[in-house]
Amino acid sequence: MREADSVAIDSRRRLRPAGIAFGGDYNPEQWPEEVWAEDVALMKEAGVSLVTAGIFSWARVEPRPGEYDFDWFDRVMDNLAGAGVAVCLATMTASPPPWLSRRHPEILPETADGRTMWPGGRQHYCPSSRVYREHAVRLVERLAARYADHPALEMWHIGNEYGCHTPMCWCEESAADFRRWLAERYGDVGALNDAWSTAFWAQRYDSFDEVLPPRLAPTFPNPAQQLDFARFSDDALLQCYLAEKEVLRRVTPDVPVTTNFIGVHKPVDAFRWAAQEDAVSVDVYQDPHDENTHVSAGFIFDVTRSARSGQPWLLMEQAPSAVNWRDRNGPKPPGGCGCGAGRRSPRAPTRCCTSSGGSPGAAPRSTTRRWSRTAAPTPVSSVK
């Protein structure tokens, strides 16, 4: 039996991939249900033992406020469990459904020059938005209660790529949250003035009510203001994560939690976040056209490994094929995907996923199968 195929079941009938887990992102809502059985069969053929699922399922499981449809996702989880594939189950909160921003446009983030970022992509929420957090937590409560004892549930994937598209927000709710954060940090406005050197260019504040985020200004914004706003923005994102984690710890205390970093990306402080995770995860999309892509990847792997003092970590996403966001895509050489995952053993993860296991049905059909083996043995993990 191949190592990636070996699966144990614990005393609560939960699947446990043995050895080095291997798999990918699985987005069955992007495909007709008729192909789900084929998906699972191809996973077994490829030696898949762990998938992430549900990352962008919020609009499907809660099509209207407070109305939930988990029946289809029950079938997804059951299919995977039946095939011996464990699930890193996402909390589904990475991208709000259209009805939420229609009913509550105040959740939408704003840029430094006051422009609203609208739905139509993903991550269209202000990290400080109380309305967003309340709806996200309500969904996570339902999700955790429903799948707490499901045998496929291996771990929780909270959110997704925090700060990737909305690392900071300059809206009025963020401004109020920033002032609160500053008051807690400095205690009084005099200490803030000293720290920010506001005597320069007559920037002195008489009260915290006068302080704004570093929005678009006629010339160079105060660098200390920018630094504190980055720290605050990291904290706002982390509070979103912690609000969901609190629910999961209460409902499923035995299930580990993670969230996926996107390399080294401001303002997210990987070392600070890692202290709130049971395992660290990272996404690395190496570019075949960049001759130094392995250098930046190695740096990211080192940071990820170091964030929890050398403990095992997960390579949550990489690209075995094309992506939708590069100006041009290039084919990887045979074995290139696996080589990127396990380039050097000191940096190597204990679990490896690819994004995405299958292209969405609306995209042009690929000539490759949705789930396929790497073309050559890969170092460290020996997944074939």
Structure in words:
The chain has one domain (3-167, 235-354): TIM Barrel, CATH 3.20.20. The model is unreliable at 1-9 and 361-384 (pLDDT under 50). The protein contains 11 helices and 11 strands. Helices cover 34% and strands 11% of the residues. Helix 5 packs parallel to helix 8 (223-251). The strands form 2 sheets. A 9-stranded parallel sheet has the order 7-6-5-4-3-11-10-9-8, with helices on one face. It has a two-stranded antiparallel ribbon with strand order 1-2. The chain has helices at 36-46, 58-61, 71-82, 98-103, 130-147, 172-186, 189-196, 223-251, 270-274, 293-307, 336-341; strands at residues 7-9, 15-17, 21-26, 50-53, 86-90, 153-157, 257-258, 260-261, 280-283, 313-317, 351-354. The protein is globular, with a radius of gyration of 22 Å. The protein has 384 residues and is an alpha/beta fold.
List the main descriptive attributes of the protein structure presented here.
alpha/beta; disordered C terminus; 11 helices; 11% strand; 34% helix; two-stranded antiparallel sheet; globular; TIM Barrel
